[in-house]
Design goal:
six-stranded parallel sheet, elongated, single chain, Arc Repressor Mutant, subunit A, DNA-binding response regulator, 215 residues, WalR-like
């Protein structure tokens, strides 16, 4: 199945590599652009069968590629989009999958491009209205929907509940009849199990409390 594609990728070498790969397997690349504004213009000028785009690109180097794709799917209902990302961006994946009822969309890590057969198969499935999501993204989306507090032991939940009350480590130790060293160990385990970013302890305590309140 030969498709008319638009490729949007700000890294020149990768963009040219994608174009070459797609043309070798029989597709026509009608435009290859390096920023989100050019992507929108190209789609409006010559609506393709499918867009292959990066998430992060100019003009702001934020999630411009993704936002442009979601907007284009609103402007052109049913427009298939395959997003390539360097990392697993759960919020980006969810926004893309929420567009157009999740039909005709794909979210893959860029490393999958090296598996040519899988990559070209993903393109054809998305173009046909299917949904393709990278296995790593699926794993993280499943984790996102799990109660993060399920990872904590009963003692760690107790410590977290007391942290939510605003207690200091010294107060925690006194209340639980344990040493401050033991309190520090429990808190460290809580931070690790909740996948909180390495930052100042105060900031991580706030994030831990927010996780507790959400659950």
């Amino acid at each position: 199945m030969s498709l008319r594609l638009i490729v949007a990728e700000d890294a020149v070498l990768l963009r040219e590599g994608l174009v070459g790969l797609l043309e070798r397997v029989g597709h026509e690349v009608v435009a290859a652009v390096g920023d989100a504004d050019a992507l929108v213009e190209a789609v409006r000028a010559d609506r393709p069968d499918l867009i292959v785009t990066d998430v992060r690109m100019p003009p702001s180097l934020g999630d411009d590629g993704l936002r442009a794709s979601v907007e284009l799917r609103t402007e052109f209902p049913g427009l298939p989009v395959l997003v390539l990302s360097q990392y697993v961006e759960r919020s980006y994946a969810l926004r893309l999958l929420d567009s157009g009822g999740g039909a005709g969309v794909g979210y893959l890590l860029k490393e999958r491009v090296g598996k040519v057969a899988d990559f070209t198969s993903a393109i054809e499935r998305v173009a046909a209205g299917g949904t393709v999501v990278d296995p790593e993204v699926i794993q993280q989306l499943v984790q996102l929907r799990q109660d993060p507090l399920e990872r904590l032991s009963a003692r760690e939940r107790e410590v977290l509940a007391l942290i939510a009350e605003g207690r200091t480590n010294a107060s925690l130790a006194k209340h639980l009849f344990i040493s401050e060293a033991a309190v520090n160990k429990h808190i460290g385990n809580i931070f690790n199990k909740l996948d909180l970013p390495v930052d100042t302890e105060g900031h991580r305590r706030v994030l831990a409390v927010l996780a507790y309140l959400r659950a």
